[in-house]
């Protein structure tokens, strides 16, 4: 279930008269109830069968498609395009912090039937992790093996 799409990308060398086609993009998906560590790039076709497809449709309509046409619009100055590019880079930098562990809030023995991760060895711990630049409500339970890797 995609919680949100964060980025689309396509060849910048494409035809300036080309029509927008969402199939030419890959979308970075933040999956519901999972930390940003598990974000994945997915195709439009794959996401069209998901429960959260409406979120992707809105993202395409409000962000990707306008950016696509703005980049091909001769009336938009290079300065405006550069400002848009700078803002996108700042957004990417902010998002890159979402995978940085800010603090561990709590711990518990790992549940064998954990719905969010593969069960670790019995007796291992899970940690409630607050991620950098994210609120406490976005904290996730992570297996001990994942925390050690960080």
TrEMBL record:
Instruction: Cite the Chromo domain residue spans from the record.
Output: 4-61, 99-150
Q: Which UniProt keywords apply?
A: ATP-binding, Nucleotide-binding, Nucleus, Transcription, Transcription regulation
Q: Does the keyword tRNA processing apply?
A: no
Q: Which domain of life is it from?
A: Eukaryota
Pfam families listed in its UniProt record = Chromo
PROSITE patterns reported for this sequence: CHROMO_1 (PS00598), CHROMO_2 (PS50013)
Please classify the protein's predominant subcellular localization into one broad category.
nucleus
Q: Output one GO BP term.
A: nucleosome organization
- Which Gene Ontology cellular-component terms appear in the entry? chromatin; nucleus
Molecular function in Gene Ontology:
ATP binding; ATP hydrolysis activity; ATP-dependent chromatin remodeler activity; chromatin binding; DNA binding; histone binding
Q: Where is the signal peptide?
A: none
Localization: Nucleus
Name of this chain's protein: Chromo domain-containing protein
**Lineage, opening ranks:** Eukaryota, Fungi, Fungi incertae sedis, Zoopagomycota, Kickxellomycotina
């Amino acid at each position: 279930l995609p919680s949100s799409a964060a980025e689309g990308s396509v060849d910048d060398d494409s035809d300036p008269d080309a029509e927008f086609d969402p199939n030419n993009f890959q979308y970075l998906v933040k999956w519901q109830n999972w930390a940003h560590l598990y974000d994945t790039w997915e195709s439009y076709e794959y996401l069209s069968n998901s429960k959260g497809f409406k979120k992707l449709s809105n993202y395409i309509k409000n962000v990707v498609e306008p950016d696509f046409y703005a980049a091909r619009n001769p009336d938009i100055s290079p300065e405006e395009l550069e400002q848009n590019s700078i803002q996108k880079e700042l957004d990417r930098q902010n998002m890159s912090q979402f995978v940085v562990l800010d603090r561990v809030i709590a711990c518990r023995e790992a549940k064998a039937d954990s719905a969010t991760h593969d069960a670790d060895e019995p007796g291992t711990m899970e940690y409630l992790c607050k991620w950098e630049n994210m609120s406490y409500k976005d904290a996730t339970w992570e297996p001990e093996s994942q925390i050690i890797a960080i």
